[in-house]
Write a structure and sequence with these properties.
By secondary structure, the chain is α/β, with parallel strands linked by helices. The chain has helices at residues 4-24, 32-37, 49-54, 56-65, 77-80, 90-101, 119-124, 130-144, 173-178, 181-193, 211-229, 253-264, 285-303, 328-333, 352-363, and strands spanning 42-47, 68-71, 105-112, 151-156, 198-203, 236-239, 242-244, 268-277, 309-314. It binds ligand G3I.
């Protein structure tokens, strides 16, 4: 027969159990999205719709862990536009339907970019028809999903200081055809097509405290200011966040000040494509995964101090599928191993990066959540 004191001691010990369970359980209130939501954040991932349609474990992982998704490729020009007079929304519709069935938000990616341009457009576009091509595309795609999209990456990666334009913008096909006004046209048309979506400018290479990223941040801020001065509709900035476990330069004041400046412009901020390259980490899986988790922790510790940051999406959920395996530098540096950049492993099990993300969500200030599409 237990004494009263022993009984109470056991009860107290049992009370600790949930916290012990909590670190191993990853579902329900222990999922990424549950921990994110407690801080006013959305937690999401890029989705490969072909895998979504063919792999139940993948579908279940997405539904369990995330409350915002984005098509990795299936809403880009090349996927939607097999021919000048043809749209193919099959895959995009499947993603939107999956999201709505699972009460998830959808990010649209993207309406104007220098990549994923179909060959028929490259060969037929002129300075005279470019505006029509761009506005027709944005109106057709935007209207189809009007009210269902949390935020559109209206223009992706417009900055490229290496192209030596005074404004630091990329000399892309759209720039060559329409000049910098292509951005104004794209954002105004997107607002016309879907007044509900948060119109986002999305870019990469703004994360580190080195000259290249500093130059890119300067060009992005100048672009945002120009768009706002021209009263171009703009609601948010996407920071892609393709980072490195062994970076050449630190992540710090440059990024923190950049995010604060964007907030002062009245814009929301989304971490849109987070992943961590481990190409520069030698050693076994355990060592690599710990280095990757540390990179997630350090990065999110910094960016989530910024209250304007409302969503964190990784560019993929699990190591079965990452664009990083196709990057030439990866093939050169690590030809005999697959990258491990994401929160879940190839068996859809949580890695140290998952727990690092979840703990980061718990330790950052709560913020006012972004408006949701439905
Ligand atoms: O669908 C075709 C297939 O029919 C063909 O057989 C195959 C072989 O050529 O190519 C397939 O298309 C590929 C597509 O991914 C779908 O898998 C393209 O070649 C390939 O270039 C494309 O890569 C994507 C890349 O963007 C370019 O669109 C990556 O998966 C995707 O992760 C990457 O994502 C970008 C973001 O959109 C913007 N930010 C950077 C990020 C990484 O580059």
């Amino acid at each position: 027969m237990l004494s009263r004191r022993s009984f109470l001691t056991n009860v107290a010990a049992a009370a600790l159990l949930p916290s012990a369970l909590e670190t191993t359980s990853i579902t329900g209130s222990n999922s990424l999205k549950a921990h994110a939501e407690r801080r006013g954040l959305l937690a999401g991932t890029a989705v490969d719709v072909h895998i979504l349609n063919t792999n139940a474990a993948y579908r279940n992982l997405l539904a369990e862990q995330y409350d915002i998704v984005v098509a990795e490729n299936q809403m880009k020009w090349k996927a939607l536009r097999p021919a000048a007079d043809k749209f193919d929304f099959t895959a995009a519709d499947q993603l939107v339907a999956f999201a709505r069935e699972n009460h998830m938000q959808v990010r649209g990616h993207n309406l104007a970019w220098h990549q994923s341009i179909p060959d028929w457009l490259t060969s037929s576009i002129t300075k005279d028809n470019a505006r029509q091509f761009l506005t027709d595309h944005i109106l057709t795609v935007g209207r189809r999903y009007a009210g269902k999209i949390h935020s559109w990456d209206v223009v992706n990666e417009a900055v490229q200081p290496k192209d030596n334009r005074p404004d630091g913008l990329r000399n892309s096909l759209w720039m060559q055809m329409l000049g910098p006004e292509y951005l104004d046209i794209a954002f105004r048309t997107a607002r016309q097509a879907d007044p509900h979506a948060r119109l986002t400018y999305n870019d990469y290479g703004v994360e580190y405290d080195g000259k290249e990223d500093t130059d890119r941040r300067t060009a992005v801020l100048a672009l945002l200011r120009r768009l706002q001065a021209a009263k171009v509709p703009l609601d948010a900035v996407g920071i892609q966040s393709h980072i490195n476990a062994r970076p050449k330069n630190p992540i710090g004041k440059g990024l923190a000040d950049f995010l604060a400046e964007i907030r002062r412009m009245g814009l929301e901020i989304y971490i849109t494509e987070l992943d961590v390259s481990d190409d520069d980490i030698e050693g076994g899986i355990e060592e690599r995964d710990q280095a990757i988790a540390a990179a997630y922790r350090n990065y999110l510790d910094l960016v989530l101090q910024e209250p304007a940051v409302k969503a964190v999406l990784t560019w993929g959920s699990d190591d079965n599928h990452t664009w990083l395996n196709d990057v030439p530098t990866h093939k050169k540096k690590q030809p005999n191993r697959a990258a491990r950049p994401l929160p879940f492993d190839t068996n859809y099990q949580p890695k140290p990066a998952f727990f690092a993300m979840r703990e980061d969500f718990d330790h950052v200030p709560r913020r006012k959540a972004t408006k949701t599409a439905h």
